[in-house]
Every structure is written in structure tokens, then in C-alpha cells.
Design goal:
Elements: H1 2-10, H2 16-31, H3 41-54, H4 60-65, H5 69-87, H6 90-99, H7 105-122, H8 125-142, H9 148-162, H10 170-179, H11 183-208, H12 210-213, H13 237-255, H14 257-260, H15 264-276, H16 283-288, H17 292-310, H18 315-323, H19 331-345, H20 347-354, H21 363-375, H22 385-395, H23 403-427
Helix pairs in contact: 1-18, 2-3, 2-17, 3-17, 5-10, 5-13, 5-15, 6-7, 6-8, 7-8, 7-9, 7-11, 8-9, 8-22, 9-11, 9-22, 10-20, 10-21, 11-23, 13-15, 17-20, 19-20, 19-21, 20-21, 21-23
Length: 428
């Protein structure tokens, strides 16, 4: 039936350019880069958007109408607030406080999982992994402990924790804005599920890496002296307090958004504006820490998916899936398709593909999509940008988090958490 659906799409000669642009863009996203070039996922998505405009599949006005600017505003604003905390030394101090308990493996593991999950729920998980990984590697090497179990905990816990709110990761922001979900209702609904997944995360790491966690201290790593003078940002408590207060007010406004009639993007933009007003921090320094690659990835994908939707390319495929009994309105098929797509093309492109098939009024179905698309990132090392950030940053400290090594925790933890999520949304 899928083959018939593809034949139906390609039978229309006018649809061929759109099919080709879509296929090449998503194939490039699945690869992550293009051989013999230095293209990355963001540039691949932008080139897909360029092709849509260059071959007159959409005009510029139609393409811009397909870009979800509220999601982009929300994402950039939160990155600005996070950048202030980073420059003020908040993240560095938090991680060093956690790893000070390196001689108490249970406490260190629990503290790392809890704190990285909490911060990822408030800020983008990619940002948390980018900041935590170097400090974590350095501190554990100085304590003569194997960093691998704790890096695994950082990657998996930040992914799980980011599913707890509608601002914890890019795909949740996208889902929240697309479906007009209530911030507090989502948080209250998924909190018990996320806490259970974090407990499973703790025991998965503790059991699989029990020998490394409780082994005697190892000799200093070869890279220890090379990174002995890893720079520590100066603690600026006035800026930290200001940023945390602004973030607290922002969360309160989001929780009471329906009463105050202030949308999440507008509230976040106002909060970022307050952060920019400072005598000590230059706005340029804050903007430099915004992940513009991620923003460009979003813009490119919005335009490519808008082209797909305008030419109704997905309708035959969805009909074919329905004919096979795979209704994306049902929780189990939705979870299975989301898990597979998220690991083929990453979670943001997967959500952009799936969301047209989800009824706007089905809040719990949107909740499941948000949770599963995030948890799916824990399946493999390539499933989430946050995972790749951890692996790439760790290499600078001679710590090699391999693909097969990641699977030892990723596969059982992800399958167990997603199964529980499907059951959870069936019960509530």
C-alpha cells in the first residue's frame, strides 16, 4: 500500500520536483552531512528551502508564511536568557558542585541526573549538554573516575528532563505553539511520567555501569594535564540572580498565560529584552551564544515542509497507513512511527512531518507526540543533537563515547520509557 501511495504521488508529473526536494533534504538530514563537502544539517535544510524557491515551487511570500515565527522567537529568547547564566558562571558552578561528590557515586549520579533534567526542562537540552560536558570530563578526570557513565547520564537525563515542559527542547516548543497547548496542563500531566523515566534512567546507568561506578580510582587520564587550566568563568551573582528572577517571572506568566492573555513567545521576548539591558554584559556576547545553526535548520525545514503540505504529498501515504491499520491518531502507531522517524531524520524534522496528521483538539495525542519524540532521542547516539554534543565535546578530553557503547543504555531505556508513556496516556 505504501508503494501504491508513492506511485500515486509520482503519477502527477508536477509533483516530481517537490518529491525530489523533499527526499534529498530528508536523506541529507538522515546522513547528517554530505560526503566530500562540509555541509551540516542546517545547511542541508537551507539548501532545500533554496531549491523550493529557485524552482518556483512556492513564492517568497508563501515560503515566509510557512515559517513558524512564534516558535523561533521563543527559542531565541530562551537561548539569550541561558547565555546570560552561562556567561555569569552559573552552569559552571553548578556542575562543579555536583562533581565535588565524585567519591560518592550514588549521590553524584543522582545529582547529575536530577540537575541536568531540571535545567533542561527550563532551557534547551542542547545548551545544557554543551556547557556541562567539558566541566564534567575535567572534574571526573581530576577525581580519577571514568567519565563515560556520567556522560551517558547527562545525555539521557537531559533528553528526558526536556520533555517535562513545552520549552525544554525545540520540538516541544514547536508542538506547543502549533497545537496551542496550555503550559501548566502539559506540565502537570507529564510530570509523573517524566519522574518515573528519570528513576529508570538512574537504575539503568547504575546497573549497566556498576563496575565503573564503584571501581577504585584510576590513574590520571593522559589529557588531564592538557586541560589542567580549563578556564572558569568568573561568578557574577548579580547577573545570575537577575536571570533566575526573570526566568521565574517568565514561567509564572506562562503558567497564567490564559488569564493574562500574553502568549509564550511575547512573554519570552520581553524576558530576553530585560536580560539585554545590562551595564556588564554586551548584547553581542549574548547573541554570540545563540545557536543560530539550529534556528537556520528550523527555517529551512519550515519552508520544505510547507512545500510538501501545499502540494498534499503526504496525504496518499497517510491514507495508505490508515489502510494498513496504522492510524496516527492512535497512540501506539503514533509512538512507533515517531520513534522510527526521530532516529532516521532527528526529532524536529520528524515532528514537522507527523503534526499534520494529529487532530488539533486531541491534547493528549499532542502530549504523547512531544514526549515520545523527545524520548526517542535516547535510542542511539545519533538520535539527538544533545547526544552528539556530549560525544563531540568529550573527545577533546580523550574520552571516546562510541556508538555501540551508547546502545547499551539507550536501547533498553528508550524502549522501556516509550512503552510506559504509551500505557500512561492510555490510562489517564
Amino acid at each position: 500500500m505504501i508503494a501504491a501511495a508513492i506511485a500515486e504521488i509520482t503519477a502527477h508529473r508536477t509533483a516530481w520536483p517537490d518529491v525530489l526536494i523533499f527526499a534529498l533534504t530528508y536523506f541529507g538530514l538522515a546522513l547528517g552531512d554530505v560526503p566530500f563537502t562540509r555541509l551540516d544539517r542546517s545547511s542541508i535544510a537551507i539548501l532545500g528551502a533554496v531549491a523550493v524557491l529557485l524552482f518556483h515551487r512556492m513564492n517568497l511570500h508563501e515560503a515566509m508564511a510557512g515559517v513558524d515565527f512564534p516558535t523561533l522567537i521563543l527559542l531565541i529568547s530562551l537561548m539569550v536568557i541561558s547565555a546570560q547564566l552561562r556567561l555569569a558562571g552559573f552552569y559552571d558552578a553548578a556542575v562543579r558542585r555536583i562533581v565535588a561528590a565524585a567519591d560518592k557515586p550514588w549521590r553524584l549520579l543522582a545529582g547529575l541526573i536530577g540537575f541536568s533534567a531540571l535545567l533542561s526542562a527550563l532551557f534547551a537540552n542542547d545548551v545544557i549538554c554543551l556547557i556541562f560536558t567539558p566541566v564534567l570530563c575535567l572534574a571526573l578526570q581530576r577525581a580519577r573516575r571514568d567519565p563515560i557513565p556520567y556522560l551517558m547520564a547527562l545525555a539521557t537525563a537531559s533528553n528526558i528532563g526536556s520533555a517535562c515542559t513545552l520549552i525544554g527542547n525545540p520540538q516541544n516548543m514547536l508542538i506547543g505553539e502549533s497545537a496551542h497547548l496550555h503550559f501548566a496542563a502539559y506540565f502537570i500531566t507529564v510530570l509523573p511520567l517524566i519522574l518515573l523515566c528519570l528513576v529508570l534512567n538512574f537504575f539503568a546507568i547504575a546497573i549497566i555501569y556498576r563496575s565503573q561506578l564503584f571501581a577504585d580510582a584510576q590513574p590520571p587520564a593522559a589529557s588531564e594535564s592538557a586541560h589542567e587550566h580549563h578556564p572558569r568563568p568568573e561568578m557574577q551573582w548579580n547577573l545570575i540572580i537577575k536571570a533566575l528572577m526573570v526566568m521565574g517571572i517568565l514561567l509564572a506568566v506562562m503558567l497564567a498565560g490564559s488569564v493574562l492573555h500574553i502568549s509564550r513567545p511575547v512573554a519570552a521576548m520581553a524576558a530576553a529584552g530585560i536580560i539585554l539591558i545590562s551595564r556588564k554584559t554586551r548584547p553581542a556576547d549574548l547573541f554570540a551564544l545563540v545557536d543560530w545553526n539550529l534556528i537556520l535548520l528550523f527555517i529551512g525545514l519550515f519552508i520544505v515542509i510547507a512545500d510538501v503540505q501545499s502540494h498534499h504529498l503526504l496525504s496518499p501515504v497517510l491514507h495508505a497507513l490508515a489502510g494498513m491499520g496504522i492510524e496516527l491518531k492512535s497512540h501506539l502507531p503514533l509512538a512507533a512511527v515517531t520513534l522510527v522517524l526521530s532516529n532516521l531524520v532527528s526529532n524536529v524534522p520528524a515532528v514537522l512531518l507527523i503534526k499534520p496528521a494529529v487532530p488539533l483538539a486531541a491534547a493528549h495525542t499532542w502530549y504523547l507526540l512531544a514526549v515520545v519524540s523527545t524520548l526517542a532521542g535516547n535510542l542511539t547516539l545519533l538520535g539527538s543533537i544533545a547526544n552528539l554534543i556530549v560525544a563531540q565535546q568529550a573527545q577533546g578530553f580523550a574520552v571516546n563515547l562510541k556508538f555501540r557503547e551508547y546502545l547499551k543504555v539507550g536501547v533498553p531505556l528508550t524502549l522501556c520509557c516509550i512503552s510506559i508513556a504509551v500505557l500512561y496516556f492510555k490510562i489517564i
